[in-house]
Structure formats: structure tokens, C-alpha cells
Design brief:
Elements (H helix, E strand, L loop, with lengths): L1 H11 L1 H7 L4 H12 L3 H19 L6 H10 L6 H11 L18
Helix pairs in contact: 1-2, 4-5, 4-6, 5-6
């Protein structure tokens, strides 16, 4: 949405475009400010994501969030476990689960 406003702001202006679109001008300006100066958390997340992916790949893509967190602590990185969980979820990384899958019903032959 911000890209559309950026393309047409010289012709129509931000206020008139935002009247037609269902957003407030303050939302547009906040999004532009975030793009120019990203917050500290997003900058740190990018660095940590690279570390998490490296640890996960080094261990044959079988480590879950808990083991990745422990490995990062052994390497001297201080990071919260919930942060590792959140970033692994965003990147789509999962550990391998042991055992058979859950079986809820048994068919009657």
C-alpha cells in the first residue's frame, strides 16, 4: 500500500489518497519512517536469524528451538529461548520429532 501511495503522491497528495484508501495518513508516515530507520529489534533479529540458521544447518537440520538455544549459549551468545522459538517459527525451521505419529482411531477391518 505504501508503494502505491509513493507512486501517486506527487499527483494527488498523501491526504487525498488516504481518504480513498482505508488507511489513515499517520499509518502511512509511520510505515515510511520504519522503512528508513528500522527498529533495534528487527536489526538484531536479522543477525540472530543468521546465527540460528547456521547452528540448525551445522546439526543436520534436526535441532529444535531448545537445542539451538543451548548451542548458542555454549558459543557465548546470550539470547532468550522465546526469541529463538519466534525466529525459528518465522523462518520455518523445525526440529525432528521422535517416535510415531499420533493415532486417534483404529479402523475395523
Amino acid at each position: 500500500m505504501t508503494r502505491f501511495i509513493d507512486e501517486h503522491r506527487q499527483t494527488y497528495g498523501v491526504g487525498s489518497i488516504c481518504k480513498i484508501l482505508p488507511i489513515a495518513p499517520s499509518v502511512y508516515y509511520a510505515a515510511v519512517a520504519r522503512q528508513k530507520n528500522p527498529c533495534l529489534r528487527s536489526q538484531k533479529d536479522k543477525e540472530l536469524s543468521d546465527e540460528i540458521r547456521r547452528v540448525w544447518n551445522d546439526n543436520f537440520c534436526v535441532y529444535g528451538a531448545r537445542k539451538v538455544w543451548h548451542q548458542l549459549r555454549r558459543e557465548g551468545r546470550t539470547i532468550a529461548r522465546c526469541t529463538v522459538e519466534r525466529l525459528m517459527r518465522q523462518m520455518g525451521l523445525k526440529g525432528v520429532m521422535r517416535g510415531k505419529g499420533i493415532r486417534t482411531t483404529r479402523s475395523d477391518p
